[in-house]
Amino acid sequence: MIRCPDCGARLAEPETCRERFGACLTLEYLHPATFGAVHHLSVMCYALQHNQYAKAAWLDARDILGRCVREDLTGAVFLRLMRERLGTKRNGSISRGPKLEGVSGIPWSTTVADVATADPAAYEADIRRWAASVVTDSAAFEPR
Ligand SMILES: [Zn+2]
User: Fold this and answer.
1) Which neighbouring-strand residues pair with 2?
2) For residue 142, is it within any domain?
3) Cβ atoms 44, 65 nearer than 8 A
4) Could you tell me the distance, in angstroms and rounded to a whole number, from the CA of residue 20 to the centre of ligand 1?
5) How far does residue 37's CA lie from ligand 1's centre (Å)?
């Protein structure tokens, strides 16, 4: 077993979170109406846990993910929110620039390693569970 240095997921060697997530993305692109319905959630969960957003964008994405979970927003509404919050002020890049410190110290209860990919219904349920847990687990996190 290996432990992801970013999100703490336990994975069987030589698998990595990046490979697990890549397999999720492939399913989402191949089956946009089923697996792909939760694409906006899976991308935010993965990027937040692996600290891929620049500082301000990480906090914005956490807020938007919280709204997605509480209000059950569709991918289209989510994209509009992301563009409004992140699109104009950063030349289109939400990952460029300094990252938040301390994100790797957040104890994540659910990771990409917990997502079942066998069928679309289980996949969607797991992604929604993952999203809710990311919101809950990061609620107490305050940027330094
Ligand atoms: Zn990871």
Assistant:
1) 11
2) no
3) yes
4) 9
5) 22
Residue 84: exposed, middle, or buried by beta-carbon count in 10 A (0-12, 13-18, 19+)?
exposed
Residue with tokens 């937040």: 48
Residue 144 belongs to a domain = no
Q: Supply the pTM of this predicted model.
A: 0.92
Q: How many domains does the chain have?
A: 1
Can you tell me whether residue 10 is helix, strand or coil?
strand
Residue 110 CA to ligand 1 centre (angstroms): 10
CA of residue 27 to ligand 1 center, whole Å: 19
In a domain, 8, yes or no: yes
Residue-wise pLDDT tens digits, 9-63: 999 888 999 999 999 999 999 999 999 999 999 999 999 999 999 998 899 999 9
The verdict on residue 143 lying in a domain is no
| Residue 10, domain extent | 2-137
CA–centroid distance, 33 to ligand 1, in Å, is 26
Ligand 1 center to 125 CA (angstroms) = 20
- Residue 99 gets which letter from DSSP? P
